[in-house]
Write a structure and sequence with these properties.
This protein is an alpha/beta fold. It is 36% helix and 20% strand. It has 2 domains: 61 residues, Helicase, Ruva Protein, domain 3 (Orthogonal Bundle); 188 residues, Vaccinia Virus protein VP39 (Rossmann fold), CATH 3.40.50. It has 11 helices and 9 strands.
């Protein structure tokens, strides 16, 4: 079977389980060939379908996320290694970096904190955006920290990124100009489908309302955030009012940013200036 025919067949088979069947097929075949997707598309007539492609396709047909199969996910301007030990970085989370870019404008944060760093996506994206910045990434999972440290080395950002095992910001000293937070925020009894069924539960669920970790983290922010700085906090689509209230109670001014689908996704918290 030619590469073109293999891609058509794979996309047709994936259509029932994926919203991007053709893209999935291309990524899997490129991975099986050990080349990039762009090279695959340019060289289709020169290539043969490798024996390992069918096994990768079967894994995807069983619901395994593409990112875990190929081990890589693009985020912001960087590419990250991902494993089942970490959440898969998603475009919606880029709204936190976009909010920070807008907040600092021509200026730049110099000290960054990433709580619940996982793969290191947010911290490493921020460090790539601001070459003079240094940052700390905290996670409770040793396995996740191993992934983050590996990503920092591959991106040659390890000299500016300090990854630490910890329980949110317990024992962390500020102040930080930018705090990035993507905690678990799914309610325990929420019905889930798709990629999240394969992701680590400890990074997804946060009590009956999905608010448990916000309630722990937000009271820590006043001692951590520098005047003139900001915290960018990812939320579930229906959590804007609840989390905004928690932030307001700690003396923050709050605004909301929406994701690509138009859902509330990022809260921007800034300290209210003292008079």
């Amino acid at each position: 079977m030619s590469v073109a025919a293999a891609l058509r067949d794979a996309a047709a088979r994936l259509d029932a389980i994926s919203g991007t069947p053709r893209l999935d097929a291309e990524l899997l075949l490129a991975h099986a060939l050990g080349i990039g997707r762009n090279e695959l598309l340019m060289r289709q007539r020169d290539l043969a379908v490798p024996p390992g492609f069918e096994a990768l396709l079967e894994r995807r047909l069983k619901g395994e996320p593409i990112a875990y199969i190929i081990g890589v996910r693009d985020f912001w301007t960087i590419s990250l290694a991902v494993t089942p030990d970490v959440l898969i970085p998603r475009p919606d989370s880029e709204s936190l970096i976009e909010a920070a870019v807008d907040h600092f404008g021509a200026a730049a944060p110099t000290r960054i904190l990433d709580l619940g760093t996982g793969s290191g996506a947010l911290l490493l994206a921020a460090l790539s955006q601001w070459p003079q910045a240094r940052g700390v990434g905290v996670d409770l999972s040793p396995a996740a920290l191993a992934v983050a440290k590996g990503n920092a080395r591959r991106l040659e950002l390890d000299d500016r990124a300090d990854f630490r095992l910890g329980d949110w910001a317990e024992g962390v000293d500020g102040p930080f100009d930018l705090i990035l937070i993507n905690p678990p925020y799914i309610a325990r009894d929420a019905a889930l489908s798709g990629d999240v069924l394969h992701e680590p539960e400890s990074a997804l669920f946060a009590g009956a309302e999905g608010l448990d970790d916000y309630r722990r983290i937000i009271p820590m922010l006043p001692r951590l955030l520098a005047q003139g700085g900001m915290a960018a906090i990812e939320i579930g689509y229906d959590q804007c009012d609840s989390v905004s209230g928690l932030l307001a109670n700690q003396g923050f001014s709050v605004s909301v940013r929406r994701d690509l689908a138009g859902h509330d996704r990022c809260l921007v918290a800034v300290p209210v200036r003292s008079v």
